Amino acid sequence: MDIREHLLEGQAIPALPLALDESRRWTQRYQRAVLRYYIDAGVGGIAVGVHSTQFEIREPEHSLFEPLLRFASSEIDAHLQGQRSFMKIAGVCGATDQALKEARIAVDCGYHAGLLSLAALKDNSLEELLEHCCAVAEVIPVIGFYLQPAVGGRTLPYSFWREFAEIPNVIAIKMAPFNRYQTFDVVRAVMDSGREDVALYTGNDDNIVADLLTPWEIDGETRFIVGGLLGQFGVWTQRAVELLAEIKQARLLDEIPRHWLTRNAAWTDANAAVFDAANGFAGCIPGIHEVLRRQGLLKTIHCLNPDEVLSAGQADELDRVCRAYPWLTDDAFIKNNLSRWLV
Question: Is 95 a residue whose pLDDT tops 80?
Fold first, then answer.
């Protein structure tokens, strides 16, 4: 598989949540079910060990980073059996020593790329950040990650992304600043670099459709954000895959049908409930878990950190958006396949 070509085709890539039982122990049975659900829903890859998977998997008392990466990689291979192209993406975090260690683990576990978080380097200079990125890119192909400050990221200027785009082993950038100005900084930086082999992916769960439909034009050149690497794609995944396919067809039209604007607003509203935007995203991971628990794919909504729970009123908000936007959900698909996945 040519990973650049695969990404440039535009894929729906969910971020994998961690499956825990009533005692907050990792349950491979339910983890396997979620992985199979994503694959059968038609995703083009899965990101493991990222924010949705809980950064606490790296802590010594849990030590789940390598076991989870190895398990997910093996299960993906076993379920797919080489039937189609598929990307395995590992979250890579921490200062340079830790990031290099995680990148080597990912390569050893069969991952194709690392989604590189810079959250641990908040006080480093831009030059030091770029040196860090170059070092990791020598170990594994890198997907850049512009993470919103509300959940641990930092503001990164156009100049950083322009230099970042020059790193040879950069294959894509996930833009998740939840900010239109900063998103455009990345698009412009990549376009100005001339790197047509660097795929643009949205991580802006609050503006999915608009990101994917917009023809970004600079000096007569046009680029699209081709796909999504999203926490939101971790729920109602079959519909997300179908909607991305519909968006690709809509891009070919001279005029975008008006209903896509309505869909963009609806998906944003639904994401606000799942990610708990009303409470500064405090319940974003439990919100993902709750959707999957209701569908039978997770046993509990537990997180490794017992303080991470649904916010007051968040469950009611999930009820509301499910009633309001039934076209976004894929309950029937899961119901028809759950017994096959949950073995």
Answer: yes
Residue 224 lies in a domain: yes
- Residue 88 sits in a domain whose CATH number is 3.20.20.70
Task: For residue 277, tell me if it sits in a domain.
Answer: no
Each residue's pLDDT tens digit, 7-29: 999 999 999 999 999 999 999 99
Is residue 66 a contact partner of residue 102, using CB atoms and an 8 Å limit? no
Distance between CA atoms of residues 140 and 114, nearest Å: 6
Residue 145 bridge partners (DSSP): 174
pLDDT over 80 at 152, yes or no: no
Q: What are phi and psi of 20, to 5 degrees?
A: -120, 150
Number of domains in the chain: 1
Q: Residue 106: inside a domain, yes or no?
A: yes
Does the predicted model carry a pTM greater than 0.85? yes
E strand or H helix at 176: strand 170-176
Structural domain for 107, as ranges? 3-254
101, 170, 73, 281 alpha-carbon torsion, rounded to 10° = 90
- Whether residue 301 is contained in a domain is answered as no
User: Checking phi first, is residue 49 left (phi over 0); if not, alpha (psi -120 to 50) or beta?
Assistant: left
Cα–Cα nearest to 326, from 243, 253, 266:
266
Taking the C-alpha atoms of residue 222 and residue 206, their distance in angstroms, rounded to an integer, is 23
Q: How many other CB atoms are found less than 10 A from the CB of residue 68?
A: 24
